[in-house]
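step: validate -> pass
step: tokenize input -> pass
step: predict -> running
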Amino acid sequence: MIKKKLLFYHSPSKFTGGISILWRGMNILYLKSFIFNFFKTNNTLKNNILLYDSARTSILHILKFLNLKSRDQVIISSFTCDAVTSAVINSGAKIVYVDIKKDLTMNDKNVLDAINSNTKVLILQNTFGRLGLSLNTLKRLKKKKIFVIEDNCLSNGSKLDNKFLGNYGDVSISSLEVSKTITLGWGGVLKINDLKFKKKIIKSYNSLCHVNIFSDIRRLLQLYISLYFLKRPNFFGNLIWYFFYGTNIFRKSNYRGNLKIKKIGPITKKFYLYLVPYFEKFYKKTNKNFIFLNKIIKNQKLICAIKEKKNERIVTPRIAILVNNRDEILKLAKKMKIEIGEWFKDCPPRLYLDKTTIYSNRNSAIISKKIIKINCYFSLTKNEIYKLKKLILNISLIENN
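step: predict -> pass
step: emit ->
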């Protein structure tokens, strides 16, 4: 039974009270346990898994490995973020943006129609738990010898026909950054699926430098502090937040400028390996939260972009809802101290837009103005789930009146 008096945690971006969308892919108990068992942790990765400083640098490394020329084209979804754009532009290749369908997957016809003699790579974006293209389209891409990088950053742990997403491209990448299903603070994971590339990719990877030990410790300290304030929000949270960022103790993400490709730090790598046995537990809890909240959304006759099908397991950090009164809903959420995400205001992103080609973005431009995203992280408490349910009910009142 849920108590009437509830304690809701803060947005760790400001260390004040409320339910955040950042750092929720981890629980401080696992970090404390890792520290206690540091010297007992295995340090061996599977030989087709590589760990990077970030997901975008893992994309950049693969694009550079493919030795793309300035005329070569990379097809990506116009419903994406600056991190993907930055990686492709830094590789020297050209971006071609294609549109999405109502369920946020890439438009298969757009993809096939946009292909020309300069098309070398497609970044397959699995958005909020669903495979980004049909299996038939993926077969056709293989016949055309187009290299497929599967972007699984928002779908890590999802399954289609009992097969994990992340196994459909020549390689796949996933993210360990602050707003993802599982976070270590920073980091990207590359999985090599087509083994004919394995030796050369690993050889190239082994030539990279690690994040230095001081930066590695600083990032884990940031993770620890952020998780601490999730549990113990502080009245002076804003001042504490500004202190850490103002003194550069906390690291900031930056998509602009030249990206430096580095391996993940050695301590963060050990933390990742420590957590691997718990991944399935995290995925199942996230999926359970998704199903529960999705059912409420459906009962309230709200438009959920992705509903789980019988042959799917949807694992995603957030549930996407399409609304007509977004500004009013954002004000309501702020009042309830719930941080809900939007998508980015511009789809495709404005970053380096003058260096890209927009094949089509009609649906993505419309949907990006209507979308809100509600948490379903594994770390949510019963009280927080209760408050999210209350938020959905209030959203329904706004949308249906």
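step: describe -> Confidence is low (pLDDT under 50) at residues 1-10.
step: cleanup -> pass
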